[in-house]
Write a structure and sequence with these properties.
Strand order of the largest sheet: 1-4-3-2
Number of domains: 2
CATH topology of the largest domain: Histidine-containing Protein, Chain: A
Structural class: alpha+beta
Shape: globular
Number of helices: 4
Length: 148
């Protein structure tokens, strides 16, 4: 189980959500499906500002993307990712976007000096949630895959 923190005032504005409360579990599952992720293999529970996701995923990446999809929505401050993974691999780092960040700056900070061009790895690791490498916002949580 991993617990991922989010800024509850930042993220997708889903039906029925506010800064004080997340969207209903069925709305969060619809958002997961909208991102092309297997919503039929998970269960979502909301308790206050914490969302718990259980079920199964084929990969660690898929499980992390599901958790980020529900977490990067208004009203969510934490996601308890209890998804069982069929083929576990080392997990990615999670990074909260700061004001003034762009993917190149994040890549250089996470991967080291001279690695700004590795931004494409971060972009790819966050698809389909990210539609463009230029469309990130402060408070958004991103997956930072290992540089291998």
């Amino acid at each position: 189980m991993s617990l991922i923190s989010f800024i509850k005032e930042v993220g997708a504005k889903l039906h029925g959500a506010s800064e004080d409360k997340p969207a209903a579990p069925e709305i969060l599952k619809q958002e997961v499906a909208k991102q092309g992720l297997p919503a039929d293999k998970i269960d979502v529970a909301v308790n206050g500002n914490t969302v718990t996701v259980t079920g199964s995923a084929t990969s660690t990446e898929e499980a992390e993307k599901i958790a980020l999809t529900v977490g990067n929505s208004i009203g969510v401050s934490q996601v308890a990712n209890n998804i069982t993974v069929e083929k576990p691999t080392p997990g990615a780092k999670m990074y909260t976007v700061q004001k003034g960040d762009n993917l190149s700056k994040i890549a250089e900070a996470q991967y080291g000096k001279g690695k700004a061009n590795e931004y494409h790895r971060i972009f790819s690791a966050n698809k389909p949630m990210l539609k463009s490498p230029d469309l990130i916002y402060p408070g958004q949580v991103l997956r930072i895959p290992p540089l291998t």
